[in-house]
Structures are given as C-alpha cells and as structure tokens.
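re the bet — no i am not wrong, look at it urself. input seq straight from the record:
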Amino acid sequence: MKFTLGEIRKHANQKPFTFDDHVDVSELKTMNNDIRNIDSVHVYGECVRSGGEQFIFTFTIEGEMILPDARTLVDVTYPFNIKATEIFTTASYISAEDEDLEIHPITGELINLTPYIKENILLETPYRVFSDQEVDDSSLSGEGWDFLSEDDEKSKVDPRFQKLQSLLDKKMKEN
C-alpha cells in the first residue's frame, strides 16, 4: 500500500485523505513465527497533514490468520481487528523526542505503509490460542505420560507413599 506525497497533499488540504484496500501479507507465514497461514487483509483509514511536514496515518487492519492450538497444535482460525497510528515526516532533522514517538522519515516522494501493516500484525499476534473444539481423549495421554486435571492429581496417591497411606487408613479404622 503505497501513497505519493503529491496525492496526499492534493486530497488532504480540506479533509482527511481516506484509503480502503486489501493488502497481501502472505509473506508473514514464511517468517519465523507461529502464523501458519494469512492471506490478504483489509486496511482502511485516513491520513491527515500536521504542520505541513507530518503525515499521520490512522488505520484499521482486519483479517484472519491460522495459528496452532496451544494444547494440540491443530489449526485455529484467529480473526483480528487492529487499530494503528503511524506518523511520517518530510523534515530532514528528527529530534530525540520524535524518535521516541516513532516518527518515520520519508525518503523520496513515496510512503509505503505495507511494512508497518505487517509490523502491527506481528505485534498483535497472540502467544497462545485455544481451539473451541472438544479435546479428543486419545490426545491426552501417550507413552510414559498422561494429562491429569488438578482434581485427578489431588486424588491420586504417590506410589512411594502408598504403603504409608495403608498404615494411615489402618490407624483411622482403629480409632
């Protein structure tokens, strides 16, 4: 999603410059992250000029990505709606305060919003997602391991203490 400064200046004098498009971000699935699949996303918003040198983009990114379930690693569709703001400037000098605000310098006559769209998607990707599907009992155990709930864990007696438990039970019957 690229915009020329001339195009923005032409439309953003009296009212905000608006945009609405679909952007291909499928490159994200090839990066080292949990995104298994993501196609194009819907991006819409507006750009306003501030002080003649700054261009403030306020936009929304909507789409769906496929992530692995945290328990079973099955595919989970995760819809997202991200609101973002990016500030660009044509000023040749950027102060330390501007760097803290993450004001991006513009080189040339073109603003490419696509890298910032991808960055916002990556920043908003959740660490863990869980499937709404019923968990298959066969996936809750394996060779040498078993998944236990907290209740199962409390009621299960450690085999090392089983003999002591029988002595305690015997003592309780006597009283």
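see?? Residues 98 and 104 are 9 Å apart (CA to CA). told u. also The radius of gyration is 28 Å. so pay up
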